[in-house]
Input
Amino acid sequence: MGGGIRDRGAVRRVVVFQQEAQDVRSEHDDGKGIPTGRVIPDDTSELVGKVEYVRERASDALERAKTRLMEKEAKFEGYVQEHPIRSVLVAAGIGAGVGLLFGVMLSRR
Output
């Protein structure tokens, strides 16, 4: 996707995140500059950049999956329209098989 920021709300969230990180750093400092707990890096922009990169990759993967799923759905619908009787018989056979399987499982109780 593009390199620019698409959502001004995202900018506000990053600023809030950076402020919260600074607050946490302050809480873990004894006033003498000596950390008293977990050390949090001063520069969170690298982390924010990595999070944005991962979010964009996940979004791209989701879009590709949706596209492939819609293509498979169209192919399936085309097959059903070309072979309606065979499709009904296969569905009935699957239903009978699942029913038989459940019947056997329930009768063993």
